[in-house]
Amino acid sequence: MKRRMSPRLSPQAKRVILQSPLETVTGIVELSAAANPRHVQEVIESCGGKLRSSVAESPAVAINSQTLTFEIGAAHLAELADLDDVVYVSTRESYRL
């Protein structure tokens, strides 16, 4: 039986998990206002990923939220989305010829 993917994953993130699970992707994770960004960073790094930047209270997201930009293996996106502190996980579309 297939595991249902988290509704916290963007359509692009779901697609890359299914089509290219071994690919390293760049993504953005939106955290709840009460989130501990350090914990999320530790999870990203424990999955072999790295944090690229963080922006607190970005005007592009809800007030008092936080976003982190990261690189991680696509197979770990679902694990990231399942964290309690996470509101939404999105990936950038890869440019392909």
In brief:
By secondary structure, the protein is an alpha+beta fold. It has helices at residues 11-19, 37-46, 77-81, and strands spanning 24-31, 50-56, 66-73, 86-91. The longest helix is centred in the middle third of the chain and has 10 residues, at 37-46.
Strand count, sense and closure of the main sheet? 4 strands, antiparallel
Strand content: 25-35%
Radius of gyration: 13 Å
What order do the SSEs take from the amino end to the carboxyl end, as H and E?
A: HEHEEHE
Structural class determined from secondary elements: alpha+beta
CATH fold-level label? Alpha-Beta Plaits
Helix content: 10-25%
Q: Give the CATH level 1 class.
A: Alpha Beta
Strand order of the main beta sheet, please? 2-3-1-4
Amino-to-carboxy terminus distance: 35 Å
| Tally of domains | 1
Shape: globular
Q: Low-confidence runs (pLDDT<50, min 5 residues)?
A: 57-64
This entry's quaternary arrangement is single chain
Number of strands: 4
Overall pLDDT: 85
Count of helix runs: 3
Examine the secondary-structure arrangement and name the CATH architecture.
2-Layer Sandwich
By CATH, the superfamily comes out as ACT domain
Description:
The chain has helices at residues 11-19, 37-46, 77-81, and strands spanning 24-31, 50-56, 66-73, 86-91. With 97 residues, the protein is an alpha+beta fold. The chain has a single domain (11-91), classed as ACT domain (Alpha-Beta Plaits), CATH 3.30.70.260. The N and C termini lie far apart (35 Å).
Task: Give the arrangement of secondary structure elements.
Layout: H1 11-19, E1 24-31, H2 37-46, E2 50-56, E3 66-73, H3 77-81, E4 86-91
Antiparallel strand pairs: 1-3, 1-4, 2-3
